[in-house]
Amino acid sequence: MPEDLKHIADDYRWGFRDEVEPELALKGLTPETVRKISEAKGEPAWMTEFRLKALEAFFKMPMPKWGPDLSALEQKLDDFYYYVKPPSRGPAESWEEVPEEIKKTYERLGIPEAERKVLAGVGAQYDSEVVYHKIKEELEKKGVVFVSIEEGLKEYEELFKKYFAKIVPPTDNKFAALNSAVWSGGSFVYVPPGVEVEVPLQAYFRVNTAGFGQFERTLIIVDEGAKVHYIEGCTAPLYTTEALHTGVIEIYVHKNAHSRYTTIQNWPTNMYNLVTQRAIVEEGGYHMWLDGNLGSKVTMKYPSSILKGRGARSEVLSIAFAKTGQHLDTGAKLIHLAEDTSGQIVSKSISKGEGRSSYRGLVKVSKNANRARANVECDALLIDPESKTDTYPYMEINNETAQIGHEATVSRLADDQIFYLQTRGLPEDEAAALIVRGFIEPVAKELPLEFAVELNRLIELEMEGSVG
């Protein structure tokens, strides 16, 4: 392993690489690449045209200048692989059908075990393609759809076309345009009216190829009075070359429906993670974004909820942990368009070494959103004197009846707190990790138990060697 990766490998146990030769690998961002992706997937002509128009939009839009520095990425866009097809005939219907090399990867990540124990359904994506997708039979009988995004396009084209790219069109931002041009993999979920999915659906995204760009697209439709919880996890190997992850998530929460989207992303520090996540919530509906970011070189991610119907509600709970060499620019958006809508943003960020975390958020209340309510809490914890944090809150309030609150705190890991815990018998490292766990507890407590335990393990790894 190269010397410049050894320090990362010590605390990134997902950094292994598999010797899997892809069937097809497309490098460079050109119309020909886009056509070949569409051809490889056997897509209808309208989707090919959609992709090509999105590519045109991408080239016309400037690189964002208002957040982290992306100038190095701009110079490397032609060096990425935009589509890598693993050796598979498509999503396997049973775990035994997954190619052996890929199966071993997911067994090391615990996916089959998780499926058996706690999940209503599970999807596994390897580089550009979903290699396995399965939903419990009793949910399938109730009409719940949980398939790969490609299968959603083929088997449910009219429903797919009704919702696809309506909340996040290609012209929304430069990286939404990139995703729209080269999207591959992701999930298509539909929950029929009144159906409650009591245990989570989970998708796991694994990057294996060096210099790869992963561009999953997930579309979730929660019909009237329905309920669902979708969990996403991501990891990748360690390489000296940089990688790119640009996902788009669209969620439709219909009248009186209830949805939750949980993301635990633990990319290595060679990854640009540039994601657009957006939900639209109708009358009486509720949506929660639960967002964990513990890796990447640069992250730009701002889960957004558009509260369209009367009484619609949304919460965004997020954690970001930035170490040396990382800039995590995260936050949230709440857009109030109707009366009696309400929302809350709770953002917790931790900066270690020379890491930099930023909160960037927006609360917007339209003139018609009478009695809208929103509260924002963004708290930052600095582990070292060199650590950095920034807060960029934006408020656009166009209704006098709105009740909006905002509070922000910045604190340092205090010597007196660590000393107190040491007097109670805790070693110094454990004392520091305990303080951090307490800091993120308002967010971590919303995770399912097995994921909260894993998050605490990750925090302990991140905190090793922070004091003393």
Written description of the protein model:
- The chain has about 475 residues and is of the alpha/beta class.
- It folds into two domains: about 5-300, no CATH class; about 425-468, no CATH class.
- The protein is built from 13 helices and 24 strands.
- Strands 5, 6, 8, 9, 11, 12, 14, 16, 17, 19, 21 and 23 form a twelve-stranded mixed beta sheet that branches. It has a ten-stranded mixed beta sheet with strand order 4-3-7-10-13-15-18-20-22-24. A two-stranded antiparallel sheet has the order 1-2.
- The radius of gyration is 22 Å and the shape is globular.
Reconstruct the topology from this structure.
Elements: H1 3-9, E1 24-27, H2 31-41, H3 45-60, H4 71-74, E2 81-85, H5 100-109, H6 111-117, E3 121-126, E4 129-135, H7 137-141, E5 145-148, H8 149-155, H9 157-163, H10 174-182, E6 187-191, E7 201-206, E8 213-214, E9 217-222, E10 227-235, E11 243-245, E12 248-253, E13 258-265, E14 271-281, E15 286-293, E16 298-301, E17 304-307, E18 313-322, E19 327-336, E20 342-351, E21 356-365, E22 373-382, E23 388-397, E24 403-412, H11 415-423, H12 428-444, H13 449-463
Parallel strand pairs: 3-7, 6-9, 7-10, 8-11, 9-12, 10-13, 11-14, 12-14, 13-15, 14-16, 14-17, 15-18, 16-19, 17-19, 18-20, 19-21, 20-22, 21-23, 22-24
Antiparallel strand pairs: 1-2, 3-4, 5-6
Helix pairs in contact: 2-3, 3-10, 8-9, 11-12, 12-13
